[in-house]
What we know:
The complex is a heterodimer. By secondary structure, chain A is mainly alpha-helical. In chain A, about 75% of the residues lie in helices and about 0% in strands. The mean pLDDT of chain A is about 85. The termini of chain B are far apart.
Amino acid sequence: MGRLVARRALHAVPVLLVVTFGVFAVAAASPFDPVKAYAGTAALGADQETLDRLRENLGVDRPFTARWWDWLTGAVTGDLGHSAVMRQPVAEVIGERLVWSTLLCAVAFTAAVLLGTLLGVLAARRPGSPTDRTVTSLAYTLEAAPVFWIALLAIWLFALKLDVLPAGGLTDTASEQVTAQQVLRHVLLPAGVLAVSQLPWFTLYVRQGVGDALAEDPVRGARARGLAERTVLLGHALRSGLLPVLTLIGSRVPELITGALLVETVFSWPGIAAATVTAATAVDFPLLAALTTLATAAVLAGNLLADLLYGLTDPRVKLSEM
Amino acid sequence: MTTRRARRTTRAALAAALAGALAACSAPGGGAADAGASADSVVIGVATEPDTLNPLLGYGKDGNSKIFDGLLARGADMRLKPALAKALPRITDGGRTYTYTLRDGVTFSDGEPLTADDVVYTYKTVLDDRTNNPAKSELDAIEDVRARGEHQVVFRLKYPYAAFAARTVLPIVPEHIAGRQNPNTGSFSTEPVGTGPYVLAGWSKGEKLTFKANPHYWGGEPEVKKLTVAIIADDDVRATRLRSGDLDGAVLPPNLAAGFRDDDGKKTYEATSYDVRVVTLPTANEVTGDRAIRRALDLAVDREAMVEKILDGAGRPAYGPLPLDDPFYAKGIDRPRDLERAKKILDRAGWKAGKDGIRAKDGRRAAFTLYYPAGDKVRQDHALAYASDAKQAGIDVTVESAGWEVIEPRMKHDAVLAGFGSTGDPDFGLYTMLHSSLAGDGFNNMARYDNPAVDKALETGRRSQDRADRKAAYDTLQRELVKDPGYTFLTHIDHLYVLADRWRDLTTQVEPHEHGFASGPWWNIEDWRPKK
């Protein structure tokens, strides 16, 4: 297992190199003007001389390959550079925000996996039953609903109509300290929305997997031996039915990050998302590269996790052979 | 047996879910209600946050920066009054030398005294080409700034500049802190220290800024001890959080502000503004460059209908760049819509209506494209109304939306629905918008307007020290713009704010195009007094 992890980490190096290079290339080709993004609304009243001076000061006209090399050599030594648009060192931008994004994603992902499994098993137990039909159609509907729309709907319902949960922010706007209790209350709605947006995938996969497993020989065998229905369902069918879900965990990570981007924006959640959007539209190379590296690393880690789980749960798969 | 057990499981799950929901209901939803019933703490919601809190990079250049003070400041009536300077400047040398004497005993919030060197450092750094300040050109008139002793600062200008004093609301930063850093990348941008009524307590980017009263403020410690500014870009979410009590006040568009009209605990403030919506008519375009077309468009637009329908009454028709209540507004230039006269002007100039009702002259159709920045609902509505008014006069306007990166290269030939408006002095907005020497210079004079009479009036207005001369010059300018309207001025937009009614006698200033937490009824939050 250790060897697998090490090998994957080694594989990640060229992937990250290519990804950051690609980000610099795409950003250099984008129509957005970093100077205008830097100057903000002041740019819309600025004269040409000012814009030219900023362009030179910010060094945005240098070829992207040179900027990429500078960034890379800096990053290797631990200096991620300075974000022009945030007027902050990149490490500081990420340091301030990463923990909140991680919290949001972790809570949402856990909730989506647990709830998805529960609903999937309920649905698979008796295919075609009212429970199954309700769960399945609900899952398809949610799969089609855009996450920002769900977010606005959730705000309208829980914050405005019922007034039970805050509509945004990390803490109550007036509060000065970030207390666990406040964060807990404020994370419920955004994490809930994010979980709901991921939920249908897990539900449908589990339903399918468990449904198929129920028809397999080991399950029929277990039933024939007179084992209790619960043991059959949870001990046999779910266990083999969960295997495809493990693959899903790895492949849902990019979707989770995209979803988090939208959810964070709607809920004014002070995470990575707002910074990512700003960095992209402002063509802020250092920040953009760091955030992309981070996202790529998250996806690679997600895939690795899926593989490891596979090796642990499926006796047919040997980690040493991967 | 198995089914029964399964049913029981379901029931248990349902019960658990219900219990969870109930628990959520009983969770203290009241965080909302007790957010700020006291009058010494205020939470406001605005749409945008400052890029930086460093005045060297452009923060607070128009005043009301909370953390800092300028040499001068502006009152509710927009008149200049002394702030860090003891009095208004002494102007000598025919308007080319401005001398300020500093107020005694002013300290920065770290306890260090303010000196003339801090002022000189601030201006010199802003004027330094290496400093990334996008508004540097506003101080172009300065030739030299020097300290005379500890308490006097002398500005020497390149030319006599009547409006210069209004530029010295620029916030002053402490040299002993900011001077030790690179102004572009230093931490001063996020950890500012100033002389102002508030000190920054925290800044969670994209979420909120918190300020605490500065107990040693030279103007007396503010009664509002804590100010929280929440950044909420979405209008609906901001209104929602205001209604739930999470916010005490917010800036809102007219339709959402109307929802608070019957709320006894909240008051709506309507601030008039210089924020004008205008259509640029590029001189280089053969249709929009034609004076008959320009005049016809100017007469054909229904400004009052735009104010009523688009702005819900929260605005005023714009007959020129300056709003009706500006002291420099030229009386008598307001004019009603006159479609018949517009048609007559076009007929006389040889623009004859074709089969489709669109006029043409020498084989050229009276048609042009009007861009508006995508996503701006108010500008979109203005553009569509403008096109439909123009159509009635026989001019075909195609409305298109795009981002600025698409619009900018097209500004020379296509019309743009633009927004302008600087407060302080007519020179600030008008010179950059109308002077022919700045035609097409970045975003200055977007229509490339070129009118010698207007140029002359702008120069007189800029250089003359005599108020009557300046007034006469700006009168001429506004009348010239009626004769040759290279821009169609549509409306001046009011800014609406809803705020909990816990303080006495709040005011609003006449506001510029931009309005974040520096404008609104909280422009002078340091002077608020609670209601008894």
